[in-house]
Each structure stands twice: as structure tokens, then as C-alpha cells.
Amino acid sequence: RVTVDGVIAVVDGPAVAAGRFVDDPAALALQRQGDAALDHDSPLAELFGDQLACADLVVLNKVDQLDAAGRAAAEAAIAAGLPRSVKLLPARFGAIDADVLLGLAAAAEDDLAQRPSHHDGEDGHDHDDFESFSLALPELGEPGALIERLVPAIERHDILRVKGFLAVAGKPMRLLLQGVGSRLQHHYDRPWRADEARAGRLVVIGLKGLDRAAIAAAIAG
Hints:
Elements: E1 8-12, H1 13-17, H2 25-34, H3 43-54, E2 57-61, H4 68-81, E3 87-90, H5 98-102, E4 130-137, H6 144-157, E5 159-166, E6 173-180, E7 183-191, E8 200-207, H7 212-220
Helix pairs in contact: 6-7
């Protein structure tokens, strides 16, 4: 995230602690020996590395979901990827004082050469390793069954993120739902407006090659 005077990397603490954004070089080397098509680093690891390379400040989010060992593992992974001394701030639900975020005075535009990405100097490369699609969902009698179906669907298809809202019969407010990996959160966020159709919509995000039909069927049950 680029602010008026610096670059801020916001990272998911539990995901980093679990090693989801960090490649195992030895394991990757073994995979490449068996498959010549694997000539590219993990897009998640690349994106994570590029964000850390540019960051003037790193926000470690969702620390409330980490125990001491998990937080230490996340901080160690971040420190290993930082090319220079950068402050790391813990956060819960992304809550950081705006004065902290906007008062860096880092002048990031003055030292772009010190913030290289994985593909500087390459022609024709872009991060098309991710894809997303949306699902329309009818009004639900209750949300529990759908949420229970979401977790195995996320794990089976290696879905990275889901976000959206649901309509629940008898409830005047819409149910906001979001998840990173298999960690789902949901709460009622605001009343339905009179001009809105009472229907839900979920956006599914993952690596390129998602089986959209299978995911849609699994979520619909």
C-alpha cells in the first residue's frame, strides 16, 4: 500500500507463520527436477518478497490469532525477507493509528533502485498467476450450512481468499463474510437498502487454474 510518503506492507500474520508465503528452496528444487515446467518461483512467495523489498513499514496483522511461537515464526520470516532495517508493527483487524501510517516521510520515490522486484529488467512479465470469480447466492434460511461447506471447498481447491456478503431470511441486515485460507469471519454489517435485491455474492480468489464449476458446486451444496 503506497501512502503519500512511503510504502507500507500489510501481511497476514497466521499465513506467514504457517509458511504459506515463504518458499522452501530445497523442496522447490526437488519439484523442478521432476517437472521441467516448474521454472518459476511461487507467485505468493514472489509477491511477498516484492512487498517486503519495497516496504518502509511492515504491519503484522491478526496477531490476536497467533500464540508466542507463531508470532515469533512470522516475525522471523519477515525479518529474513527485509533488505534493510524496517519497523514492524503488530495489529489486530488492521487497526493502526493513521498518524503512524501517514507520517513516515520516507520519500520512497527517491530510492527506487534500492527496492527491486523479482522481475526488474524482464520484458513481458506480469503477475497473471492469480484469478478470481464471483458467485451469486440466493437468500439463505440460515448461513451455518454454507459456511460449513466453504471450509472443505477452500482446502480442497487451495482457495486463497473469499469475500462477499450473504442475505439471510428474517434478518434486516446483510451478513458480511471474508476469509483468508480456511479462517473465516462473518458479521452483520449494515441494513439492506430498499433498492437492493436480497441476494448474496461471494468473490473467490486463488492461483490461476481454479476449477470454477467444482468450487461453485461445492459451495452451493
